[in-house]
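pipeline/complex-builder :: batch 7 item 3
reading input block
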Amino acid sequence: MNSLFLIQQRLRSSERPTGLQEQDLFTIANQWVGNPPDLAAKVQADLAALRALPEVVDAFATQSYPLSNGGWDDGISLEAGDQHWVTSGALYFTDEHGLPTLGLKLIAGRNFEAAEIAQRNDMEGGPPAAIIVSHALATKLFPNGDALGKSIYLADYKSKAPIVGIVERLQQPWASVTNQRVEYAMLQPYRFVEQYSYYVVRAKPGQIASAMKSAEKQLLAISRGRINDKTRTMAETRQRAYRDDRGLAVILAFVSVVLLIVTAFGIIGITSFWVSQRRRQIGIRRAMGASRTAILRYFQTENLMIASAGAALGILLALSLNFLMAGKFEMARLDVGSTVVAAVVVLLLGQLAVLWPALRAASISPVVAIRNN
Amino acid sequence: MELHPILSAMRRNKVGAIVIVVQTAITLAIL
């Protein structure tokens, strides 16, 4: 049941919502060739051109985005100079177009205002003038639910920044983060100007394919001094982010099936041996008036009893295995659901495996009783 | 269904029964 549980967990985590309007979003990785001096103007020109496309709703430039598996995070404390962070959160740079592009649901406060937005690159940038946090992060930092308007201290800047907005959901860039931490994320009001950045573009509903083509064509028309690789829909990004998890689930499922087959053959082998060992007794029982069904039921009940004992022992074994793994790795505790499912599967497997030898036993003729060999 | 004859038959074939119990248990734990 540990494999079943792992498979179930992996598949569940690959369906976690990011908070984004994923079906209409795509990203373009944009890398300028050389180091153009007017980078800021070039990025703004690109974004203006993307926003002007007929299939596009909005766009912004950033250093990271959910499920991209690469990004930044920063420690957060509530007092100036406090070295003990309350927690840390992933950060995304965005201008006022970020919120509408991503389709994040603002549940309190407001979007960034133009005056709050500063320019920054990988290395340099002043402290953020404002912060938008996810609801999960807001609740972690201010459990009383009064995060809006409060200020937080970011380890990178040593100065405070006010929380001006709270979004319902915003996921971190890393797919492997546990459920508990995966939504600790925030937006910071920067125009990200760097040689390598991502353009996140929101297409009009149902027009994502043509929007992607137009966007790539448009960017090349503006300047050919760039490399636009990895133009991906959010759906593709999600699939890539969880590819390893899916692979692991498939391998575990395969191993589990092989294990079930081996166990089934083990049961078939031993029961067949018992049937041939007891041929004479079975023949005598048949001669004394036991029906074929009675013989069949005999072996089925026998297997049920043995398999039940095995299941009980197995549950103990699985729980201790899970206990060990939970202590050593970051693994969740087994749930009752997969325990029950695994126990039922094993009992059914036993019944299925015993059917063939039991039917053979039931077909033993009463004549065997009087045969003398 | 009488369980008594099954139990006494199992008592005589302890090894086989134990093998199936252990195999089932390991399968369940890993599965």
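note: The radius of gyration of chain B is 12 Å.
queue -> next item
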